[in-house]
Design goal:
Pept_tRNA_hydro_sf
Length: 224
């Protein structure tokens, strides 16, 4: 079983903000997986989250088009395996994201190595992506909260860039001097085009990690 958490803030006010990139990616992942919407988000008071549960059909050397939800009565072909995946959008607000993550991991008795956190990252330029295991939070309060509640940093992160990159560092420092205002701002202008590409890249990264493993996903999607 895999637990894939998109970090963000609940509510219409935050829907299009940079800080909600994690929400955007897991939403798009489910939409692509279930184009006919047989699976939808469920508001879970128990887990303080919106959650969706799917079964990922893993089969080597098959195209992504086969990864749609299977009829529960359909007999699986030889060599095909299913893995349960729980998608999560915490409703505890960003700075308390770990509360929801801890509730779910405890209930399902999950190892933290099976926890994947998808989040925005101002230290990476917009459009960049890095998958990594463990390490510091780099000042991301949502990641800090997950670390605090799980009492470990040993979980996977899908870091999705929303910054401007080192090539324009002086301007970046000026623009995001108040980091909170920056990440709670909406994507604007040309950023919107890059955002669409980044969401697709994030979804493809998750698909590859589920299908071929995280090492393969890192080799393919990590920005050099």
């Amino acid at each position: 079983m895999k637990l894939i958490i998109g970090l963000g803030n609940p509510g219409e006010k935050y829907e299009k903000t940079r800080h909600n990139l994690g929400f955007m990616i897991v939403e798009r992942f489910l939409k692509d997986f279930e184009p006919v919407k047989t699976t939808s988000w469920e508001n879970s008071a128990k887990f303080k989250s919106d959650i969706a549960q799917i079964e990922w059909q893993r089969q080597s050397n098959q195209k992504s088009s086969i990864r749609q939800a299977q009829d529960k009565n359909q007999k699986l072909e030889e060599g095909v395996s299913l893995e349960k995946v729980i998608l999560v959008k915490p409703k505890t607000y960003m700075n308390n994201s770990g509360m929801a993550v801890q509730l779910i991991t405890s209930y399902f008795k999950l190892l933290t190595v099976d926890v994947w956190v998808v989040h925005d990252d101002i230290d990476l330029p917009l459009g960049a992506m890095k998958i990594r295991f463990g390490g510091a939070s780099a000042g991301h309060h949502g990641v800090e909260s997950v670390m605090e509640h799980l009492k470990t940093d040993k979980f996977w992160r899908f870091r999705m860039g929303v910054g401007e990159g080192k090539s324009n560092l002086k301007n970046q420092i000026s623009k995001i001097k108040n980091v909170e205002n920056y990440v709670l701002g909406n994507f604007v202008g040309q950023e919107k085009g890059k955002l669409k590409h980044l969401i697709k890249r994030g979804v493809n990264g998750i698909e590859t990690a589920l299908e071929d493993g995280l090492d393969s996903a890192m080799n393919r999607f990590n920005t050099k």
